[in-house]
Structure prediction request, 408 residues.
Amino acid sequence: MIDTRAHFNPDLSPVELVVLQGTSFCNLNCLYCDLSPESRRIKSSMSADIIDRFFTDLFQCGLAAREVTVLWHSGEPLVLPPSYYDDAIARILRLKDAFASHDISIKFGIQTNGVLINDAWCNFFVRHASHLEVGVSCDGPDDLHDMFRVNWNGRSTHAQTIRGMDPLNSNGIKYKLIAVVNRQTLREPERFYRFFFERREQLSGFHFNILADSNSSHPDLSYSKDDRTMYYSFYSRLLEICRTSIEPFEILNFTQGAARILAPKKEPGHSFFEQATAPFGALNVDTSGNITTFYAGLSVDTLRDLYGDGLGLSLGNIFDIPLTEMTKSKKLKRMMKDFDLSKRACQKSCEYFSVCPGGFDILKKQALGSFESSETVECVIHVKALVDALLDDIQNHVTRTSGSLASA
Prediction:
């Protein structure tokens, strides 16, 4: 078959990630969730027609990368039955074989709160073990987790999450853990680390998140530039604990950050910053078939009136506009121009630009009123404090190693 990607805008990235909102409904009411409480009460699900239409378009137009990850997220995926995902996976693989213009490898992922995992789900995970990764959201020890990860009655969920993780372990199913850090976590890095370290043999990976938006109404979730030292201390202490641990334990925040710092100099014009917001690199499909890009998990509700159509950064609905037409739309060109302005502003003014993973463009627009603004609170806490901690840790390691060699 002919690779049709050559006919598209060369500034578009091949699609590497597809986030599917199988349902917006959730059995929990986590107080920091990006989705509105109203949307998390809606028991609709993505139809097979949407899956067929989207992936037929994706594979026929030649925009898919050589390796594509399909992730179910933005709502609790496990409120739908395993049979739903058996069918969806089979459909996607069948459409890939029928319509892809080049060889494509597809991996699947499900990000769950873990509460509903049972034997039927474990059988499903085992059935698809060769091409599916399980991610579980857990914020650490019970008191840290239960501060914000509660059910609709406001009750704790930690014990239920652990009961969901246990059968994964007993069935030999590796899973990735993702934890949200709050202000109380910053005060207890040792206990936070130990909780995940003790489960290291069960895990395929571990990553912690600082909330993307600093302006939470809850004081234990909000943060400001004045908190830079506190976050730096948290990162530094975790790095120290990792280094002195009895066994290696990888924290992906640190290995990915170190990789950016130590990477060889890139070609002119290339940056890690661009990877986070590459147009079409990530596509999100909600339960109604609306498509957004630039960020994984981006909703049509974000900056809804920015482009005058009430659809935020949506490129349209897959039933109304084929993907090929979305790539040529005037709206996409306007969005790409705005994101390019954002990149250039950071590149011009920020000394951390070469090691920044990006992803703060919309926050700049929301908080500072312009894509051409530069530093946000999130930049300081997510990137600058972390890079400083990593650089200091690397320098300390070099100093210790040099001292050891000199005394040998």
In short: Strands lie at 15-20, 64-72, 105-112, 132-137, 175-181, 203-210, 282-285, 290-293, 314-317. Residues 386 and 397 are 16 Å apart (CA to CA). The first strand starts at residue 15 and ends at 20. The mean pLDDT is 92.
